[in-house]
Amino acid sequence: MPALRDPQTGDSRRSILLAGRSIDYTLKRAKRRTLGLTIDDRGLTVAIPLRGSIRDAEEFIREKGAWVLEKLDEWAQRAPPAVHVLEDGSKFPLRGRQCTLRLVPDLSQPRWLEDIYGHELHIAPYRDGVLRTLVMRAIQSYALRYFKGRIEEYAYTLQQFAPDIRIPTLRLTNANTRWGSCSKLSGIRLNWRLIHLPSAQIDYVVAHELAHLVEMNHSSRFWAVVAEMYPDYDEARAALRDANRIIPAW
C-alpha cells in the first residue's frame, strides 16, 4: 500500500508480506547506528538510521519474521486493559501497592495519605471527564516528586565512581513504548506511568537512564555501570515485561 506519513513525526506506515500475511508496520528514522524492532499494542515499529533504506528495513523484518509474527499474535490475544471507573473507593496501583480514591466534598487541593496498608488519594468530586483529568494530574505530580528523589539518590551513588556527573533535569513523558530516555543536554525523561509499578522496577529504570550519562550505549560497560548502582537489576528488568498487566488504562 502507499506509505502514510505522520506530518508531526515524519514516521510512515507501510506493509510487508510475512508467511503470506500482510503486516502493517511503522517506519521510524532516528539518530542511531543499528536497526531495531518494537512490538506493542500499536503493532510493529521498525527504527532505522537516518540514512537507512526501506529495503534494509524490510530485509531486517524478514530476518526476524518468525519472531515478529509470534509477538504480534501474542499481542492480539491480550485483552485490552479496562478503563478505570472512578468513584469513591476505586482502587489503582501506586508504587506496586493499592491506592484508594476518596471523593471529599469542598476539598480545594488533592491530598495524599499513606500508611502500612497502602495509599489514599483524596480529591473533590467532579463529573467523570474532569475527575479523570484531575486524578491523572495528581498522579503525575506525585510521580514527578517521587522520581526526583530516586534520581537524586542514584545520582549520588553514581558520583562515587563518576564524580563529574551532575544531577540531570527530569521531565515526565507520556510515551507508549519507552519507560525512559536520557540525554546529556536535555536530561532524563521518565514515563509517568512507571509510578504504578513496584519501587524496585522504578529504581531499575532510574539507574538504567542515569547509567547513560556515563555510557550512551548498551555495551557491557553500560551494564557494569547499572550494576554498580543497582546490583539486582536483572530481576526488575525481567519484571518490566509484565508491566502492562499492572498499569491501568487512563
Q: Can you lay out the helices and strands and say which pair or pack?
A:
Blueprint: E1 4-5, E2 12-18, E3 21-30, E4 36-40, E5 43-49, H1 54-63, H2 65-77, E6 91-94, E7 97-103, E8 111-115, E9 118-123, H3 128-159, E10 170-173, E11 180-183, E12 187-191, H4 199-211, H5 220-229, H6 233-239
Parallel strand pairs: 3-5, 7-9, 10-12
Antiparallel strand pairs: 1-2, 2-3, 4-5, 6-7, 8-9, 11-12
Describe this structure as you would to a colleague.
The chain has helices at 54-63, 65-77, 128-159, 199-211, 220-229, 233-239; strands at residues 4-5, 12-18, 21-30, 36-40, 43-49, 91-94, 97-103, 111-115, 118-123, 170-173, 180-183, 187-191. The mean pLDDT is 87. It is of the alpha/beta class. It is built from 6 helices and 12 strands. 34% of the residues lie in helices and 26% in strands. Strands 1-2-3-5-4 form a 5-stranded mixed β-sheet, with helices on one face. The protein has a 4-stranded mixed β-sheet with strand order 6-7-9-8, covered by helices on one side. The chain has a 3-stranded mixed β-sheet with strand order 10-12-11, with helices on one face. The longest helix is centred in the middle third of the chain and has 32 residues, at 128-159. The two termini are 33 Å apart. Helix 3 crosses helix 4, helix 4 crosses helix 5 (220-229) and helix 4 (199-211) packs across helix 6 (233-239). A hairpin with a 2-residue loop joins strand 6 and strand 7.
